[in-house]
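Field log, afternoon session.

UNIT: design team B
ACTIVITY: writing a sequence onto a fixed backbone
BACKBONE:
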């Protein structure tokens, strides 16, 4: 009987040891998740549609913007326009796709697969680094893209959307609450 009791205590001790070690392994992740939720209450700066400082374009409707980024429209006022997208899984891209295109990331992906299968064109080029994206836009009149207002740099100019600047209260691409990462 004593051997069985001793074995039971050792088994219980092993279970507690595993539980404590498991908790210690998960603790950093749990604390990081809590920090992510606290950061998620911060409002992101508005999105701004950008073109080269030299470009003639000063205003677009939300509908024109959608047509450009869905490759339904390739020119504006007789001039070629080439859209560039940031990385697909960034808050900037997700918000733009939701507000302007009216789609989730998965829907955008399916949209482009269907267009490609039908031979109806390619998606906008994706430029992962926002600094590179802005440099490309700054150097060519035909490029158009979007970034957060706090990322504006010399050489690019924010254009109006539906006649509103990004400083206007009713600007259509206004910032929103940052989402916590899954």
């Amino acid at each position: 009987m004593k051997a069985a009791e001793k074995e039971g205590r050792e088994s219980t001790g092993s279970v507690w040891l595993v539980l404590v070690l498991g908790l210690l392994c998960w603790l950093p992740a749990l604390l990081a998740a809590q920090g992510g939720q606290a950061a998620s209450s911060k409002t992101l700066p508005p999105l701004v549609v950008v073109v080269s400082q030299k470009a003639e374009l000063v205003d677009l409707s939300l509908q024109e913007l959608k047509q450009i980024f869905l490759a339904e429209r390739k020119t504006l006022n007789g001039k070629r326009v080439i859209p560039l997208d940031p990385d697909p899984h960034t808050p900037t891209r997700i918000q733009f796709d939701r507000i302007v295109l009216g789609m989730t990331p998965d829907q955008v992906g399916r949209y482009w697969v269907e267009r490609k299968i039908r031979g109806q064109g390619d998606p906008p080029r994706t430029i992962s680094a926002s600094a590179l994206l802005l440099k490309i836009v700054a150097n060519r009149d035909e490029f158009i893209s979007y970034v957060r207002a706090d990322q504006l740099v010399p050489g690019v100019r924010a254009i109006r959307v539906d006649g509103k600047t990004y400083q206007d209260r009713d600007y259509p691409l206004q910032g929103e609450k940052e989402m916590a990462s899954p």
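LOG NOTE: The mean pLDDT is 82.
NEXT ACTIVITY: expression trials, pending approval
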